[in-house]
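Re: the request from the purification team.
They wanted to know what the chain is likely to look like in 3D before they choose a buffer screen. I agreed to run a prediction and write the result into the notebook, where they can find it.
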Amino acid sequence: MQVGNARYLKPEDLPDTVPVFPLTGVLLLPAGQLPLNIFEPRYLAMFDEAIAGNRLIGMVQPALNEQENTSNSAPLASVGCLGRITSFAETGDGRYIVSLTGICRFRLLEEKTGSHPFRSFKIAPFIADLNSASEEDTVDRPALISALRAYLDANKLEADWESVERASNMTLVNSMAMMSPFGPAEKQALLEAPDLKTRAETLIAITEIVLASNFSDSNTILQ
C-alpha cells in the first residue's frame, strides 16, 4: 500500500511501537480518510512528535465498558488501525486540523512507559491489510448498494451516486463503515471483521437491523 510518498508493503516498513489516540465511536480503516480536530495538549504533543518522525498514529477506541474513562490508564480495545498523517494545518487558536489515511489494522501488545503525556504501545500489525487488493471480488456489491440505498431513503438522505459507482469495493465498504452512524460496539465489530467480504456482510447486517428496528419503532408509535 502506498500512502502519500510512503510505501508500506512488508512488516519491516512498519514501526513496532506507535503512539495511540483513543477516541470513542471513531473508526479508521485501511485506505480510509479520517479528519481530526486536535486540541488537547497531550494529543497536540503526540502529533508534534509524529510529524517530526514517521507521521504514524494508532487510532483505537476505549474498551467498550470504559467509554467515559479518559484517563491515561483506561483500558483500550485490543484492535485499532494505524494511520499516516497526510494533511496538517494549524489554526489561530492552537488547534491542529489533520487527516489520517489508514494503512493497516493492529493488535495492541504491551504498553510502553516513558515521559510523554500520551500513550504508546507495541503493536502486532495485520500484515494482510497491506496487500488486500485480491479481496475486491469477494464483496456482494449489489447487496451493499441496496443496503446503502435503503438506509438513505429511510433517513431522507442523498448520495453522490456517480462517485459511489466509480468507487472500488474496498473504498465503498470501508468508507461506508467509517461514515456509518453506528455505536462503538458496531464500529469495533466492523474494524475486527477478518476480511473485506466479512466486513461488507457485517455492514449490511447491522444496517438491516437498524432499519428493522426503526420500522418497528415507527409502527409502535402509529399504533
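For the purification team: Strands lie at 2-3, 6-7, 17-22, 33-38, 56-60, 79-90, 96-112, 119-125.
Please add any questions underneath this entry.
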